[in-house]
Amino acid sequence: MRERERERAKQGKTDRTMATRKIIIDTDPGQDDSVAILIALGSPHELEVVAIVSVAGNVPLWRTTENALKVTDLAGRPDVPVYAGCARPMRRQPITAEHVHGTTGINGVDLAPASRPAQDQHGVDFLIDTLRASEPGEITLCVLGPITNVAMAMVKAPDITGRIAEIVWMAGAYFEVGNITPTAEFNVYVDPEAADVVVKSGVKLTMVPLDVTHRALATHERLDRFRALGNRAGQAVADMLNFSERFDLGKYGWIGAPLHDPCVIAYLLQPEIFVGRHINVEIELAGTYTTGMTVADWWGVSKRPANVTYLRDVDADAFFSLLVERVGRLP
Ligand code: BDR
Ligand code: CA
Predict the structure, then answer these.
(1) Is 322 helix (H, G, I), strand (E, B) or coil?
(2) Chain segment 122-150, per-residue pLDDT in tens
(3) pTM for the whole structure
(4) Bridge partners of 6?
(5) How far, in Å, CA of 168 to CA of 142, rounded?
């Protein structure tokens, strides 16, 4: 607890309600990452966004950093610091996804130039310093891209692992298999070594895989609800998701794009609308065809110890209603 908070607590006053959870968002925006950031910033009673850390993923690091700055501006929250993290995975060359997200990563909108630069400190060092200065269990990490920064922080400073309340990560696929390869989901495939460090770390970890996000489709009717809000955030969400739709329509023939990363924030806000199991998940590091696969032991056949809460389903109508409500609170 910081000195001022300690003092106010002694006087029976608090700056945050007891229910407010401190989160750091680690992200590679990305249209769906951007919507997740907006939902988090639209939920100040439940979530305090301490900072955003960017990572190379959907597009190169300089773009994900720039996009995170622009999206916080869009939400009217230039006070949220943005730290640039790792520019490439731990061991592999970067893989990007402009074919899905467009050249900027957030094609579909043309947001105003960022009002300020990113912080000077490296994102990994920020994670280490912030977790070391926090009480154990005080900070939750919401990871929306390759998990390079978190794994690097765990390697550089193993003592931080026990201080993390929980990691909720959009990652993996089992029943839906893969999206970037036949068997691997993008966020794991880009940096499987980082994923391996984190699933073996003993940290409380919840995975939000494609098995869930492919059930949260941004249909035209749902996009219209964002547009009808009449605020600039609602319009931007509709425009970004309208762009994302192209890729998934062509690939899956669905009626809307799956909304991956906002599921992480929605899980923190309304866990009761998700269903999952505590199971063993291992990362395939050296498969001939299966590198980056999340080997999820849903049926418990391996007898390996459970290390992940693996989500499997979501009430999509409740999810979109929550999103619309939270985006509606923004400028
Ligand atoms: C994940 O990959 C990215 O393209 C999305 O932003 C999401 O985090 C889905 O596989
Ligand atoms: Ca992402």
Answers:
(1) helix
(2) 999 999 999 999 999 999 999 999 999 99
(3) 0.93
(4) none
(5) 5
Cα–Cα distances (Å) from 173 to 112, 196, 219, in that order, read 35, 15, 22
Q: Which residues are catalytic?
A: 260
Cα 36 to ligand 1 centre (Å): 12
Tokens of 126: 């920020």
Centroid of ligand 2 to alpha carbon of 169 (angstroms):
10
Place of tokens 């993008």: 186
Between CA 168 and CA 59 the distance in angstroms is 22
Mean pLDDT of the chain: 93
Q: Does 144 sit in the ligand 1 pocket, CB within 6 Å?
A: yes
Domain count of the fold of the chain: 1
Query: Best of 64, 170, 213, 263 to mutate for ligand 1, by most ligand atoms within 8 A of CB?
Result: 170
* CATH number of the domain that residue 162 is part of: 3.90.245.10
Structure tokens at 97: 């996804």
Distance of CA 269 to the CA centre of its chain: 14
> Which numbered atom of ligand 1 lies nearest the CA of 170?
8
Which residue range is the domain that position 168 belongs to?
3-327
